[in-house]
Design brief:
Length: 311
């Protein structure tokens, strides 16, 4: 048994597909298949149910997966700690964050961190919270900002979550073609009557808004659904409708203006890492920078509320 075999097994288990796993690992598919077959022979058990188009775990595979994840995470932590013995002159931080945080809080935090520790290699994974939780579970990233309320992980894996701030959801409209007066406070009923640009249903924010409308007995009909936050905001800028977004996405967007909802809705931004892996020095330093950056954002924006005292 070797680390490459375990990496291959974990990636196939995560993606449920040999081709996608081999692409993720930058490895030829036949080589990956041989690694898994060799691992199965060495362990004396089948780890995967192989079906066309999809792979699932056998009972033996389910038993091995959390242990393999822990081994790989510890190996990564050991390498990071060895690099960090030079006093943060070397090392690596793999940070994950949703797209709605990358252009504001994350951008500022990374700028501050890089200025203080230019020798640390930084890797940013931009994805939804559920995807980031999955990547934390398999050791693909070290630390992540997450917003989803439902962030269950694989059996045998737990996450430590540090709530940072509560971010109010606001209604945005174009500054050139305003559909709502700037600074106004509007109710859900009036919002439902406006042309809305909605996020894709895979977003937790969309689920939050749908639930709020259902609770109020309302059924808005979006004029358009956008797959990504940036796409939604660009349509709003063109005057095609309004959208409900987290307050921080307005950072550096002079083409937009905002209005507050009379029924306050918010999302929680938390910092997460695997509970069974002690963050190395570089990751711990990045964590401290993110906490300090979040505190500065709270001071600047009344739509944000610190949760550090509520942790």
């Amino acid at each position: 048994m070797n680390l490459e075999q375990l990496r291959g097994f974990v990636e196939v288990a995560r993606l449920g597909h040999f081709t996608r796993a081999s692409e993720s690992l930058h490895l030829a598919q036949p080589s990956l298949s041989r690694q898994i077959s060799t691992l199965e022979r060495e362990l004396g058990a089948d780890l995967l149910h192989r079906a066309r188009g999809h792979i699932s775990l056998t009972p033996a595979g389910e038993a091995l997966l959390p242990r393999a994840q822990r081994i790989l995470a510890e190996v990564g932590a050991i390498q990071d700690e060895m690099d960090e013995l030079a006093g943060l002159r070397r090392g690596r931080v793999r940070l994950g964050a949703p797209p709605t945080l990358c252009g504001n809080l994350v951008a500022e935090a990374i700028a501050v961190f890089h200025g203080a520790h230019p020798g640390i290699d930084l890797h940013l994974a931009e994805a939804g919270s559920r995807t980031l939780v999955e990547r934390l579970a398999v050791g693909g990233i070290d630390i992540a900002l997450v917003t989803a309320s439902d962030t269950r992980v694989m059996p045998g894996v737990t996450l430590t979550r540090m709530p940072l701030l509560a971010e109010e959801l606001v209604v945005v409209t174009s500054s050139s073609y305003p559909l709502v007066a700037e600074g106004a406070t509007i109710g859900l009923a009036y919002l439902a009557s406006l042309p809305m640009i909605a996020l894709d249903r895979s977003y937790d924010l969309r689920a939050t808004m749908d639930a709020a409308f259902r609770a109020a007995g309302l059924s808005p009909n979006p004029v358009l659904e956008g797959p990504e936050m940036d796409t939604v905001l660009r349509f709003v800028e063109k005057g095609l409708g309004v959208a409900v977004v987290p307050a921080m996405v307005l950072t550096d967007r002079p083409e937009l203006r905002s209005a507050r909802l009379s029924t306050t809705l918010s999302r929680t931004v938390s910092l997460a890492h695997r509970s069974d892996v002690t963050p190395g020095a570089a990751v711990a330093a990045m964590r401290d920078v993110i906490i300090a950056t979040a505190a500065r954002f709270v001071e600047r924006d009344s739509a944000l509320r610190s949760l550090r005292d509520e942790d």
